[in-house]
Amino acid sequence: MHGLFGQVQHELKVDLNHALQGGPALSYELLVGDRWGYQLDLALFERLKFLPASVYFSTDPQKYPATALSVTAGARYYLTGSQDKVGIHVGPIVRVESQMWTHPGEESTRKFLDLGSTYQQKSWLVGGRFGFKGKLWRGLIIESDANIGVLLGPEKTSIKPEVRIMLGYKFGRRKSRKGG
Fold first, then answer.
1. pLDDT attached to residue 171
2. Using CA of residue 145, residue 146, residue 148, residue 151, what is the dihedral sign?
3. How many Cβ atoms are within 10 Å of 29's Cβ, its own excluded?
4. Residue 14, C-beta contacts closer than 8 angstroms, at least 6 positions apart
5. In angstroms, what CA-CA distances link 156 with 35, 125, 160?
6. Cα(9)–Cα(104) distance, rounded to whole angstroms?
7. CB 66 within 8 A of CB 48
8. In 3-state terms, what secondary structure has residue 108?
9. pLDDT band (50, 70, 90) for residue 169
10. Mean per-residue pLDDT for 85-90?
11. What are phi and psi of 153, to 5 degrees?
């Protein structure tokens, strides 16, 4: 029997789709044993936040800039059981997303009412991930995965699909196995 930590590798990855949309998104995966990986994703992005009429003193529906931070944790089971952790993987994910925005016309009113000038909203996503990872050259890897989950938030509950393409680097050494 081999020690768990003798077979540990690490990967750092960049989500290329997210980077093209103007925000950084980084992933770290801890690879343990022949079949398991545990991943943590961090993303920061700007988006337009829709505020419907009659909400927050609005007179008509409009969109306002919002900043969002997303943290996703997940486990991966590699179906091929390869020591290099390439091939098909599946697993659960949980994401929390926090959005912050300011309605330009309400800043002074909110301050007067001692509500603060920034709105905040959190949402959760619970779901699964299916993907494929391949080696490019030495420690360079490319990965594509599809997430689908139930988005739970104050505005609505919905199904949210997502496809990602990531480029990364694998480091750390695996101890060789003795015997057969």
1. 86
2. positive
3. 25
4. 24, 25, 26, 27, 166, 167, 168
5. 36, 12, 12
6. 47
7. yes
8. helix
9. very high
10. 84
11. -150, 175
Instruction: Report how far apart the first and last C-alpha atoms of the chain are (Å, whole number).
Output: 12
DSSP bridge partners of 78: 89
> pLDDT by residue (tens digit) across 25-77?
999 999 888 889 999 999 887 765 555 444 444 455 556 667 788 899 999 99
d(CA 152, CA 159): 9
Exposure class string for 102-113: b at 16+ Cβ within 10 A, else e: bbeebeeebeee
Measured CA to CA, the distance from residue 133 to residue 80 in angstroms comes to: 11
Dihedrals φ, ψ of 146, to 5°?
-125, 130
pLDDT of residue 180: 42
List, for residues 97-107, the tens digit of each pLDDT value. Answer: 887 766 555 55
β-pair partners for 70: 43, 97
Give the number of other Cβ atoms within 10 Å of residue 76's Cβ. 23
The pairing of beta strand 25-32 with beta strand 87-101: unpaired
Residues composing the chain: 180
In this predicted model, what pLDDT tens digit does every residue of 123-159 receive, in sequence order? 888 999 999 999 898 889 999 999 898 888 776 677 7
Amino acid at 156: K
